[in-house]
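ligand=pyridoxal-5'-phosphate
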Amino acid sequence: MTKQRPQDAYTNSIESPTYQSASYYFNNADHVKDGLHNRSVPAGRYGRYSNPTWIEVENKLSELSGAESSLVFASGMAAHVTAFLALLEAGDEVVLPSESYRQVRNVFHHILPKFGVVVHEFSIRDSEAFIENVAALRGRIKLVHLEMPSSPHMYLIDVARVRAAVGPDVILTLDSSFSPPPNYYALQWGVDLVLFSATKYLSGHGDIVAGVASGREELIEKLRWYRDTTGPIVDGNTAFLLRRSLYTLQLRMERVNAMGLEVARFLEGHPAVERVYYNGLESHPHFKLAQQYLNGFGGVITFELRMSEEQTAEVVDRLRVPFMASNFGAPHTLIEQSTFFTYFEYSDDELVSIGVPRGTVRLALGYSNEVADIIKDLDQALSHVLSGAGGSAAS
Ligand code: PLP
């Protein structure tokens, strides 16, 4: 059988084709020299190194974040791990917030120290104290990793003051999974590298797992070498789905921002609710920072019920609109009782120290639901259990 070359494509398709190829051919030795050796013509070589569909979505992601360059990864965690492996060396000292995503903390505490990285962790609950702690390490730190808003309390960080506290040479990375553009533009605030779980708002359909890193070319090139070498890549179809989703990011964020405020205000006014953590509410401890940094507050709301863990479970069980599931940024509304999901292995003392009572619930609004339906559903479940009609309602 002779080798079969792809059919000539139409050249006037508005959308680019999706490339699914494990490798790329060269016509002859000159083509290898031009495409591979001196790179005077664009050409692929092998599927782990590049793919035109990645390149297209990476360009769009750079435009979105105002970055020089971007890379897509197999997951948000793959983007984080690749960044830290690429940017850190044995002996480097790093800082991260105690409220960072659990698996990112695991990377800092259980993986990076194996390679000689020294880790300092401080809470961002008190934003001033965090800055003081970081400032006290000035001259010693190589990298500060931030995440905002944090989960479940939606704490924020005064990023510009962190930059001022550490000086211009420290690398600032920031996990912006909860606050993608247009809600927050991390790179405009002194951040060097913004990281995303694209599984969340960026892809926005709950149907892919992917990650993104965006920043200066010089940093991204370091990450690229690690991605090329270790292979945490997406396939062409996943890159296509991400690229397609970016068309609606602004619309989706506008919708969940509006839904978030409405549902958060409803919850704040409900007698069964002890407190609500939502950056758009004046009652949020970091409301002022939210006004300074965020253009919208997203669709994730954490609230504490004036109820036991069992009663809280009854409320969640009675809900008909949300799926009981861990994620956010999807079309569907999702809900998780924090002490049954993320913190199910924590002792009472540990829960007290991180400020997560057993009546804590995280609600991630989905743009395919109507806000009136969500509020009605929450109201019936809360009122039922509050009235004592629920099986174990006691106090
Ligand atoms: N960062 C945050 C804030 C997250 O919530 C998650 C996942 O839940 C990640 C990073 C990791 O992303 P992924 O699940 O795409 O690996």
